[in-house]
Design a protein that fits this description.
single chain; 104 residues; Glutaredoxin; 49% helix; globular
């Protein structure tokens, strides 16, 4: 595993809710990242760890390989890849996201 993949793996596995996004929770830098934060808060996520991929080009590219998912944002809960903002919205609307976030 490369250094960047190891860094990503550590972030994913050491945080209950980990969102790789453009910008920060306080200042999202794209609409999809902003929607992801809103959905997580609406679903009851209280501790959201974020990583701004715009500040680290290695992670920005590496996260796409890590999940084999081409877009950002990417959500991980309990060390597992959940998906991007569209999947998060669908899961929120069905109640799945709230159930997933409630698990510790």
């Amino acid at each position: 595993m490369s250094d960047v993949q190891q860094r990503i793996d550590d972030l994913v596995k050491n945080n209950h809710v980990m969102l790789f996004m453009k910008g920060s929770a306080q200042f999202p830098m794209c609409g999809f990242s902003g929607r992801a934060i809103q959905v997580l808060k609406a679903a009851g996520a209280d501790e959201i760890k974020t990583f701004n991929v715009l500040e680290d080009e290695e992670v920005r590219q590496g996260i796409k390989d890590y999940a084999q998912w081409p877009t950002i944002p990417q959500l991980y809960v309990n060390g597992e890849f959940v998906g991007g903002s569209d999947i998060m919205m669908e899961m929120y609307q069905s109640g799945e996201l709230q159930q997933l976030l409630a698990k510790t």
